[in-house]
Write a structure and sequence with these properties.
single chain, 8 strands, 3-stranded mixed sheet, 3-stranded antiparallel sheet, alpha+beta, disordered C terminus, about 190 residues
Length: about 190
């Protein structure tokens, strides 16, 4: 039985950079007390209330993004705004906190960590995708969100042009987005 439990936890965690939530364990018919016992033995580390990480799972530069998407516990957050730009490598943004979007109706009854900034929006499936194993708003939605959050026009323009250059946006879509958000007649087609 212990090997079966460990295997079940590993299967969940493997898809999430080594992270597993207590609710995911319950869904896999694993008693939440088992997670606490595994943490006591050093197999798991308790990251925050209801969120654990396999201690022997290789760490990654994406860990904080994965942690942010799982932190809400009852639903999965989506990396957004400047953090999604950084995840995609669009523009020179360097956010001080991880930005994630959760549904408007989500009620959070615990303090949000200082490293995490939550935004509220009811995202449709077309508004987000999985990139490098991390749920994130699409590049176009990300750029729109950053513009709406008053990210400087130079960074928004750079994000649009980087999205075109890297293939995240077609030239025609990039040009239209730049004209829509930043005005002017010069489009991203020129770069």
């Amino acid at each position: 039985m212990p090997g079966t439990v460990h295997n079940a936890i590993y299967e969940i965690a493997e898809e999430q950079n080594g992270y597993v939530t207590a609710s995911q364990a319950v869904d896999a018919e694993i008693d939440p007390r088992t997670l606490a016992k595994m943490a006591e033995r050093g197999v798991l580390e308790r990251v925050s209330w209801g969120l654990y990480r396999l201690t022997r799972f290789p760490q990654s530069t994406l860990d904080q993004y994965v942690e942010a998407t799982l932190w809400p516990l009852s639903t999965r957050a989506v990396i957004s705004h400047e953090s999604a730009l950084a995840l995609y490598g669009l523009s020179d943004v360097n956010p001080a906190r991880v930005h994630a979007t959760v549904p408007k109706s989500l009620r959070i009854r615990r303090e949000v960590p200082k490293w995490l900034e939550l935004h509220r929006a009811d995202l449709r499936k077309v508004d987000w995708q999985v990139h490098d194993g991390v749920p994130a708003t699409t590049p176009e939605r990300t750029i729109r969100d950053c513009h709406a959050a008053h990210l400087g026009p130079a960074l928004v323009r750079q994000a649009i042009r980087d999205a075109r250059r890297t293939g995240f946006l077609r030239a025609s879509r990039a040009g239209a987005l730049e004209r829509e958000l930043l005005g002017g007649s010069k489009g991203a087609e020129e770069s």
